[in-house]
Amino acid sequence: MNYIPNILFAIALFVGLGYFAKNVKKLIRNIKLGQDVDVSDNKSQRWKNMTRIALGQGKMVKRPIAGILHIIVYIGFIIINLEVLEIIIDGLFGTHRIFLEVLPQSVYGFLIGSFEILAALVFISVIVFWIRRNIIKIQRFWNSEMTSWPKNDANYILYFEMVLMTLFLVMNATDIDFQAMNSGNVISQFIAPWFSGLPETTIHIIERSAWWLHIIGILIFLNYLYFSKHLHILLAFPNTYYGKVKPKGQLNNPEAVTKEVKMMMDPNVDPFAAPAEGADAEMPAKFGASDVQDLSWVQLLNAYTCTECGRCTSECPANLTGKKLSPRKIMMDTRDRLEEVGKNIDANNGEFKDDGKQLLGDYILPEELWACTTCNACVEACPVSIDPLSIIIEMRRYLVMEQSAAPVELNNMMTNIENNGAPWPYNQMDRLNWKDE
Amino acid sequence: MSEQLKVPTMAQCMAEGRQPEVLFWVGSAGSFDDRAKKITKAFVKILNKANVDFAVLGTEESCTGDVAKRAGNEFLFQMQAVMNIEVLNGYEVKRIVTACPHSYNTLKNEYPQLGGNYQVQHHTEFIDELMKAGKLKIEGSTQLKGKRITFHDPCYLGRANDVYEAPRKLLQSLGIELVEMKRNRNSALCCGAGGAQMFKEPEKGNMDINVLRTEEALQTNPNVIATGCPYCNTMMTDGVKAKEKEDSIQVMDIAELIANSQN
């Protein structure tokens, strides 16, 4: 009989972690739908980027208020999770505050005391976040791509954190022995009096309920991640590692095009030669990207990492002047379409069945793509090294090289370059005329 | 410009059997756009004054392909790149300077993978080096002394390649008062011309980007808006006109400001 709570705990833990693992596998499968790309270069620079940008929150403080509040929640999240280790051991073995038996009371008190202070700080920060979103209505949280789900998602996360922090503090406040010990109850000692009139058994029941709800809440929150923009708490690390290490201005030169160009410029190539055996397999299906599978897996990882903070969009010159383009929407659309493709694969025994839809047109419109000035403001603004510009360029490539669907003025410009080596219709032989004018 | 500019071409140098130290990549805007041509000439004036051993490709130069690439036409870009690289490598060019951040970015970052490896500098970096080496000095009383100048960071120089200080150092050497816009350096707002926007009408919106950027510049109450890019120059000039401030505010390239400070 005494083992029932232990068994229930083990089951909850197993189900919680198991379901999460299953979804992580799906997540990895979806990301791998992207094109392969070599990221084995610049290892030390990549580690540095991850350490500075993700671990060190290096780009968050560019906006000091949001940045500092975020750092509090981030540190709180990591450190308070040490307490989860104790909870898991207690839950599995039926112990109570096992670390108190291992650590000196003063050390234990110091640890729990810091957790309590952090929990209170996280609680306050999260309230401020909620106020910024819902009362002050900061513009970037209310742009047109912030439809009902993105807005709700953001608030659910905040509610989760408020509830978890409250449960943690209540759990400590109603632990009669812990309060009696009077070490580490820095915050909870002020909550304990709220329950003082109650019978001891009731207080104990509240303590047990808070303890259970806290750990079950954590497991639910863990599993909520996969469905939420909150995935960034995990993916920010790989994303900053695999993020761009080249100068921001440098776009890739697709090798498939290089091959074609070299062939065109090589006088020894026989234009009528039959393709070599197996050469067809090497030809890319298309130039540029019209759907998520045409993007690289790093770009798909970018999409899952985006937490929709909107710093990119709030710096985008096109968006600031009322154009349809929003770099955040590019990322959200990419993820939405990728999840749609993933579900399609799940429903069709691991095989993607054409659903007559694609990223271009059904999610992202040419009008958005053509509004981009390639200024890199979005890339610079992203606190987790997401590169929306690279997706915009890939899709422009598809529009131009597969569909010849550039705006007419751009076609004129390109014809000029082809004919006379300048974007304007001037004769190449006049290039040095300025010298004598 | 009244004085005769010395502008040798690579072909002439080769005929004379000498290799110039640096190639000046003029770029399409610098060759054909009336406003940009003035910047080109101002920079040549500086090169002549500092006795820099340079040459241009002249009629052998062709568009770098930057705009085509940003518009999505990778074929056209790579064709241009491969042709230009053939010419540049044929002349054994090692070092390039250009007054256009778009050419700068493309030559520096996107040509190496296609076989074109050069040391590429923006003209502000190059002039800064000339000053440091004592080959160029700010001479006499410049009419700019004490003037308020704000610097608009070109995206392809700043964010794209992290060059923020060279242009500012040059401006400060003119004894002017450098006033920064609220968005500057890596958070500078684009002028609206990049990514091939220069060649098309903007998408529907409620404002033009260059007007927004000009408003930000006007908030610093400047006498001169300085920049280092022919496209930015056009956009900011148009913006100043849209705000009807063209009588009181000039839009100038840093090369022009430095050239004007020479006797």
TrEMBL record, chain A:
<keyword id="KW-0472">Membrane</keyword>
<dbReference type="InterPro" id="IPR051460">
    <property type="entry name" value="HdrC_iron-sulfur_subunit"/>
</dbReference>
<keyword id="KW-0479">Metal-binding</keyword>
<dbReference type="GO" id="GO:0051539">
    <property type="term" value="F:4 iron, 4 sulfur cluster binding"/>
</dbReference>
<keyword id="KW-0004">4Fe-4S</keyword>
<dbReference type="InterPro" id="IPR017896">
    <property type="entry name" value="4Fe4S_Fe-S-bd"/>
</dbReference>
<dbReference type="Pfam" id="PF13187">
    <property type="entry name" value="Fer4_9"/>
</dbReference>
<feature type="domain" description="4Fe-4S ferredoxin-type">
    <location>
        <begin position="361"/>
        <end position="394"/>
    </location>
</feature>
<protein>
    <submittedName>
        <fullName>(Fe-S)-binding protein</fullName>
    </submittedName>
</protein>
<feature type="transmembrane region" description="Helical">
    <location>
        <begin position="156"/>
        <end position="174"/>
    </location>
</feature>
<dbReference type="InterPro" id="IPR017900">
    <property type="entry name" value="4Fe4S_Fe_S_CS"/>
</dbReference>
<keyword id="KW-1133">Transmembrane helix</keyword>
<feature type="transmembrane region" description="Helical">
    <location>
        <begin position="65"/>
        <end position="89"/>
    </location>
</feature>
<dbReference type="GO" id="GO:0016491">
    <property type="term" value="F:oxidoreductase activity"/>
</dbReference>
<feature type="transmembrane region" description="Helical">
    <location>
        <begin position="6"/>
        <end position="24"/>
    </location>
</feature>
<feature type="transmembrane region" description="Helical">
    <location>
        <begin position="109"/>
        <end position="131"/>
    </location>
</feature>
<dbReference type="GO" id="GO:0005886">
    <property type="term" value="C:plasma membrane"/>
</dbReference>
<dbReference type="InterPro" id="IPR009051">
    <property type="entry name" value="Helical_ferredxn"/>
</dbReference>
<keyword id="KW-0560">Oxidoreductase</keyword>
<feature type="transmembrane region" description="Helical">
    <location>
        <begin position="209"/>
        <end position="227"/>
    </location>
</feature>
<keyword id="KW-0812">Transmembrane</keyword>
<keyword id="KW-0411">Iron-sulfur</keyword>
TrEMBL record, chain B:
<keyword id="KW-0004">4Fe-4S</keyword>
<dbReference type="GO" id="GO:0016491">
    <property type="term" value="F:oxidoreductase activity"/>
</dbReference>
<feature type="domain" description="Cysteine-rich">
    <location>
        <begin position="32"/>
        <end position="107"/>
    </location>
</feature>
<keyword id="KW-0408">Iron</keyword>
<dbReference type="InterPro" id="IPR004017">
    <property type="entry name" value="Cys_rich_dom"/>
</dbReference>
<dbReference type="GO" id="GO:0046872">
    <property type="term" value="F:metal ion binding"/>
</dbReference>
<keyword id="KW-0560">Oxidoreductase</keyword>
<feature type="domain" description="Cysteine-rich">
    <location>
        <begin position="149"/>
        <end position="236"/>
    </location>
</feature>
<dbReference type="InterPro" id="IPR051460">
    <property type="entry name" value="HdrC_iron-sulfur_subunit"/>
</dbReference>
<dbReference type="Pfam" id="PF02754">
    <property type="entry name" value="CCG"/>
</dbReference>
<keyword id="KW-0479">Metal-binding</keyword>
<keyword id="KW-0411">Iron-sulfur</keyword>
<dbReference type="GO" id="GO:0005886">
    <property type="term" value="C:plasma membrane"/>
</dbReference>
<protein>
    <submittedName>
        <fullName>(Fe-S)-binding protein</fullName>
    </submittedName>
</protein>
<dbReference type="GO" id="GO:0051539">
    <property type="term" value="F:4 iron, 4 sulfur cluster binding"/>
</dbReference>
